[in-house]
Write the structure tokens for this entry.
Amino acid sequence: MERIQIFDTTLRDGEQVPGCKLETHEKVEIAKELESLGVDVIEAGFPISSPGDFLSVVEISKAVSKPVVCGLTRAKKEDIDVAAEALHHARRGRIHTGIGSSDVHIEHKFRSTREKVLEQGVSAVKYAKSKGHEVEFYAEDAGRADLDFLVKMTQEVIAAGADVVNIPDTTGYCLPNMYGKRIAYLFEHVKNIDKAIISVHCHNDLGLATANTMAGLANGARQAEVTINGIGERAGNTSLEEIAMIIKIHKDLKMETGIISERLYDLSQMVSTKMRMPVQANKAIVGKNAFAHSSGIHQDGFLKHAENYEIINPSDVGVPSSSIILTARSGRAALRHRLELLGINLEGQDINVVYEHFLQMADLKKEVDNNDLRVLVANLPLLQKP
Ligand code: KIV
Ligand code: ZN
């Protein structure tokens, strides 16, 4: 089994989302829950960006003991100095420094040249390394970088002391096979690649963040950068719960993480509430509908044998149970099941009568609830045809 490191950036890339800003005490609460969830690295903030971010990195460094605590920097000495100081109390601190690697970033963001950004990246790694923390280097926009330049950059930052090299698909541009091939190419061409962990950090602009992350892992990367509920810049980052459950369900991948999956749902709710960012109902793993069955055919199949329509046991992700939603698409099996849960056992003609009136009600209402059913059953004598 290959152990995949889970690097959580909910409190950095996730918190960059407009409206998701958190107070330091809220970040500390989330960081403690991330520790209990079993993440390996917590990216706690971007210390030079504001006094609040600095304080959060300090307080998280004090509050957690198992995960590595990481602070983001640009490839600048002043950023690295501030991050190193913020991480002072961390049992294991990591400085995450880096610079653009694609020509579009080099020309239009840094107005620089490949040679100069390479030199700046290498110097930043050496300087960060001198601070006594672990060092992770990010080659920003690696998804669109010239591959041979990316090889050169990766090789040189590893030679300069980087413990981890992050290959971000910053703009969510890559297709899974493209991204996977990029990672494979690095493994084939970077001579000292065995001296560092290769990390994948994908954005979801085309809805491919999870697929790309899995492609990166399948091609040798051993760290996945993720956020709870997939929150993050623009369309978001790769979602932690999806990667953790893909790896758990597909044993044939021969990968494992340290995630205690039973804690996923509660933490998803906590992050959603604190960041005022609702989870979409059909979100994989933690959405309201992830274990809800509403069509008659599915409900009947599910009630006969849950595995007919569920590949994950809800309790494995901390959801107490699956649910059967009673709508106009529901059949008798679902109705009977719900009535039984309410302690009502109807036989023969009675169930047919209630079902007929249930359908009329369901056509008027989106969902029929327990109270509606109790009223229907109480009125059964009136509903019976003479
Ligand atoms: O998406 C990205 O490239 C990033 C880096 C700062 C790691 O978030
Ligand atoms: Zn990012």
About this structure: The chain has a mean pLDDT of 96. The chain has two domains: 2-274, 292-383. Residues 106 and 116 are 9 Å apart (CA to CA).
